[in-house]
Amino acid sequence: MTKTGVFDGDPTIMITKASELKKELQRLVRAIVDNDDSNAETIDRATQTLRALKEVKSKTRVSLRKPSYDGGLLSCCPEEFRCPISGELMRDPVIVSTGQTYDRPFIQRWLKSGHRTCPRTQQVLSHTLLTPNLLIREMISQWCKNHEMQLPDPTQYSNEDGLTEADRDHFISLLEKMSSTLSEQKEAARELRLLTKRMPSFRALFSESIDAIPQLLNPLSQNRSQIDLHPELQEDLITTLLNLSIHDNNKKFVAETPMVISLVIDALRSGTIETRSNAAATLFTLSALDSNKALIGKSGALKSLIDLLEEGHPLAMKDVASAVFNLCIIQENKASAVRDGAVGVILKKIANRIHVDELLAILAILSSNPKAVEEMGELGGVPCLLSVIRESLCPRNKENCIAILHTICFNDRTKWKEMREEETTYGTISQLAQNGTSRAKRKASGILERLNRVVNLTRTA
Asked: Residue limits of the U-box domain (predicted)?
């Protein structure tokens, strides 16, 4: 393949270069016009810049009109076979949401540079999925045959993600196997799990077709009652979902695909412990988007997460805690978590010194919910948190504890007695008011001021 033009034959680069030369030429002309004493050197530079601009313009037109794999006849090929961006004969035509067709590598480059409009119509794209235009592709192929011209083998060309046409065909064949026999489903699921783990480009492929994820999950959606008979298949498919959800551009698309969240919740309740852990991790990565937090919360996922948290399997605890924390950032999910028993489960784990850091963070975020605060007081939260302050070496844990205690005590007068006894016996709160983080000092000082008022009122009475 021979390239035409300069600047790597990329028309977008040449257009940029032409723009830079125009600006330089404008500057030099202004200098000549505005300065009566302009020297010959400035005029010579302006002349050289004008020649360079003319050359770039000429080569840009050549690049746009003659494909890089020039076969002589390509200058007269139908206009609809050319990519509107590159001007080249398309080798992998795809359709964007506006209905316009482009060559895949060029429209991908356009989208990855941050554009969210159709290059030809300037309409805002409703989504960035790319659908193969099989009709145009077949017409291009037929045109080439009629003119006894062979296009280069598509497998020789990789897109910017390193995927070849053969890779895409293999991807499609793996998804098709999800509707085949059980043995082929297992084989394909295992390979997709490995591919999406090793190659980010394969994760991106799923967002290019609206049917890809439903095809992937077909074995789970069709045989939900039988999935316990094939736990390894469920594990591979859920882990593939986790790999997909890591890709930022996939998060919204994955979460909003029908049945995805419900199948992930099924996985939280059944299968291997690795499946359950990866299902929790999937919810955690998807919940990075606020819109997904609400969607996942409404699905009832928090109950399954809290049940798994209560079981306390070491392999799953961190992923579950991370998912619960992320989901509870929005107010409506806090109420759901409290209704589903989060406070009691978390306090028990903290009392047993299990994943204290993560669980204290959840308890702190739940403390803005009045029902959660009430339950913390009723379920022994005060002595539990005070013991963590005494024993912990982590400033952040101490800070979370005293902030939660501050909320509990200012909402429940009966807890001031326990706080006064703690201060009298250990001086825990005074020490924190002197040595804690700035927030911990503020909360501890607030408690001490209230304790002093309570003591003074008692003496007066």
From this structure: 76-150
User: Which two tokens mark 107?
Assistant: 């429209």
Give the Cα-Cα-Cα angle 21, 25, 28 (nearest 5 degrees): 140
Contact 241, 260 (CB under 8 A): yes
Average pLDDT for the chain: 84
Cβ-count burial of 114 within 10 angstroms (0-12 exposed, 13-18 middle, 19+ buried)? exposed
Tell me the three state secondary structure of residue 165: helix
Q: Which of 118-127, 256-265, 440-449 has the lowest mean pLDDT?
A: 118-127
If we measure between CA atoms, which residue out of 358, 447, 342 comes closest to residue 394? 358
Which helix (H) or strand (E) element contains residue 95?
Answer: strand 93-95
Using CA atoms, how far residue 452 sits from 54, 118, 385, 415, 418, in Å, is 85, 68, 21, 14, 14
pTM (2 decimals)? 0.66
Q: Using DSSP, state whether 93 is helix, strand or coil.
A: strand
Mean pLDDT of 117-138: 84
At 218, the pLDDT band (50, 70, 90 cuts) reads very high
**196 shares its domain with 333:** yes
| Per-residue tokens: 349 | 């784990």
On whether the CB atoms of residues 330 and 308 are closer than 8 A, the answer is no
**Does 251 share its domain with 351?**
no
Are 278 and 396 in a shared domain? no
Strand order in the sheet with 101-103: 101-103, 93-95, 131-132
Phi then psi dihedrals of residue 299, to 5 deg: -75, -10
282 and 180 within one domain: yes
- What CATH number should be reported for the domain holding residue 126? 3.30.40.10
The H or E element that residue 102 is part of is strand 101-103
- Cα atoms in the 13 Å half-sphere on the side-chain side of 385: 33
| Most confident range, picked from 36-40, 131-135, 259-263 | 259-263
